[in-house]
Structure formats: C-alpha cells, structure tokens
Amino acid sequence: MTNKKFLFIIILMRTKIKWTPQRLAILKYLEGNKSHPSAEDIYEALCGDYPTMSVATVYNVLEFLKRTGKVREIYVDSDKRRFDPDLTPHHHAVCINCGKIFDILDLELPDLKKYTKDFDIIDAQLTIYVFCDNCKGKEELKIGFKEYECTKCGTVRTAKHKPQKCPACGSRGFLKEYKSNQ
Predict the structure, then answer these.
(1) Which end of the chain is more exposed for a tag (fewer CB within 10 A), N or C?
(2) Structure pTM?
(3) pLDDT digits over 62-84, tens only?
C-alpha cells in the first residue's frame, strides 16, 4: 500500500461518514479512471453490483472527495458535472461529436497573472474542442447529437436530448446513452 493511499484511508477513518461498500466501490471506480466520469456514469457502472446504491450517494461521495481535494470537478460538459481523479496539472480535449474527454499533458500556459492583475487565479485549465480519431473520419457528423439505445428492444435513436420514450416499442424509461464500439 502506498503512502498516499494509507494517508487517504486515515482521512476516511476520521470523517463522520460511514464508509459503506457502495461508497468504497465509488472510490475504487475512480482510482486511475481516465474517462472523466459523471455521477450518472459512475452510478450506471456500479448499480448492477450494488442495487441499493442511489445517484444521491454517488453525488454525496463526489462532493466529499471534491471538498477534501481528492477529485476535481471539470467544466467541459454543459449537460453533466464531470469529475477527474487525476490531480496533476493537465488540460483537456473534448470531441464535439462523441463527447469523449482526453487528457493533454505537458502543456504550459503562459503567465496569466499579467493578464488578470485584478484577480486571484484559483485554477486554470485549457479546454480544446476537437474531432477525435474515431470521429474525424466519419462521413456524416452529427454535432451535438447523441445516440440512445432502448434496453428493452435494442433500437438506437439519434437525438439532441434524451427521448422520453422509445420510438419503436413506446416504452418509457428504458433509453440509455449508446456507446458504440468503433
């Protein structure tokens, strides 16, 4: 066990939060995660193994980790709050077609203090909007659109916002964001 992990476990033990298996699973999911997940992404990944887990539990753990400096909230997606467990200084590239977020390492920003003399800089992150390798070769790009799959009948629909019901079978509440394996 590394010193960093040991110190973090001591911090967890000193909090008044009861560290349930669900909360510990969230910590394990975040460890080394490079996908910049939202609370909903974490919930969807873990709810099968932890059926009593709620989205509120995920948000509460993320807020605690944010307050204690163990994750950083990144502001690259207007639809979802995203979190980054990598606290080393880095920037992000966001594909405007599929929404994937990539880390950009070893990029130095200029001295921003000379441009913002009247401000106290708390954090500075550069976000570059790109077409990723998977999307730049696609013939038909649908910028701002996402694909949603009905988990009941398997139909995939492209839309700007999550549809209320499946266009094929009419069921409600079974549409999830579709992640193709391209």
Answers:
(1) N
(2) 0.66
(3) 998 898 888 999 988 777 899 99
The more confident residue out of 82 and 178 is 82
Query: 88-136, superfamily in CATH?
Result: Ferric-uptake regulator, C-terminal dimerisarion domain (3.30.1490.190)
| Exposed e or buried b per residue across 49-72, where buried means at least 16 C-beta atoms within 10 angstroms of its C-beta | ebeebeeebbbebbebbeeeebbb
Give the span between the Cα atoms of 148 and 159, in whole angstroms: 8
Fold of the CATH domain 3-74: Arc Repressor Mutant, subunit A (1.10.10)
* Cα dihedral 3, 65, 46, 42 in deg (nearest 10): -120
